[in-house]
Amino acid sequence: MIRDLRICFVGDSFVAGAGDETALGWVGRVTAAAWQRGVALTAYNLGVRRDTSADLRRRAEPEVLARLLGAGDAKAVVFGFGANDCTLEDDMPRVPPEASVENAVALLAWAAARWPVLMLGPPPLAHDAAHDARAAALSSRFAAVCEGMDIPFLDTHGPLSGIAAWRNGALRGDGVHPDGAGYAALAALVEQWPAWRNLTRP
Amino acid sequence: MIRDLRICFVGDSFVAGAGDETALGWVGRVTAAAWQRGVALTAYNLGVRRDTSADLRRRAEPEVLARLLGAGDAKAVVFGFGANDCTLEDDMPRVPPEASVENAVALLAWAAARWPVLMLGPPPLAHDAAHDARAAALSSRFAAVCEGMDIPFLDTHGPLSGIAAWRNGALRGDGVHPDGAGYAALAALVEQWPAWRNLTRP
């Protein structure tokens, strides 16, 4: 009997895989890779475009519970958000960094009390250098939060900033979201992440 | 500018693509095909394993609103459920057919008042002939409901019952859910469906 593992991926458009012409996104790619390793992974993709950490606090709890309650033994939650918090509206970020940290702590604490939890930081934003710098700074704050809570954190901003497939995909697409090649680069980072491999071991 | 279309797929494990080693399911396959036709389709997969029509009535509304409210002009909802309603527990279906019809009417009416709506009937259940017969009967009742509400309905039970890839995939897997080849057969039915092609035209 192969292992029945169910994971909710909670986050924004980058979790949803927006812009990916293959319809896989990074979540679909790492899910298919888990099947190849002999894990029957059910991936519930709860990424929503434009969602901030504040939006996630409103919907994550009922959506995750509807999928993981009473659903076998092996379950987990993977978070990925932050980019939309840093978007400016009327010269102010949609969610100020202090509130983003507070939201992250609340989301992570709720989930980690119930299941194994991992978190990905926001990826690079190729269309706007100032927005990108805010995302990098927020990623560092999230890394510190996760370290304090003993939750594995994957910095995607640093590595993807040096990968042409990510930036070029975004520039070919809507300017923000990469294409399938960009998501493949992000999926490769997740695949190499020991915390992910441990979570999805056969 | 290519067309920005966002669709919520609301349903059960067959909508979620459970058992598909490629992580695409039929939803991922028809989404990738839409991109190939020049439609930037954001697919929100809201399929949850074991969900009945009663479960969907509890969660569909907030989950769909969180994804479609204020999200551009082109939006739609596609439903697919019924198989779990017909599962016996203590010799009774989890949801009796009359309640399934009532739930379907409520879900369809709510969504159709806001967006274009399509519905797929439950697929064949290879593991249990009696369960399969109940699903076929429920599919016919859903077809009549949709006809009365002028909502396009796709019978998947009839066509897939004659397609070896569906049955063989289920028998190779957990007995209920097909593998990628089975989901590809279902995706091909959806791709040939005029209502789907009209919804996803470039």
UniProtKB/TrEMBL annotation, chains A, B:
Q: Which residues form the SGNH hydrolase-type esterase domain?
A: 9-185
Gene3D superfamilies with a match to the protein in the record: SGNH hydrolase
Coiled-coil intervals, chain numbering: none
- Cross-referenced InterPro entries, in alphabetical order? Ester_Hydrolysis_Enzymes, SGNH_hydro, SGNH_hydro_sf
Q: What is this protein called?
A: SGNH hydrolase-type esterase domain-containing protein
Organism whose genome encodes this protein: Paracraurococcus ruber
Starting at the broadest rank, the lineage of the source organism is: Bacteria, Pseudomonadati, Pseudomonadota, Alphaproteobacteria, Acetobacterales
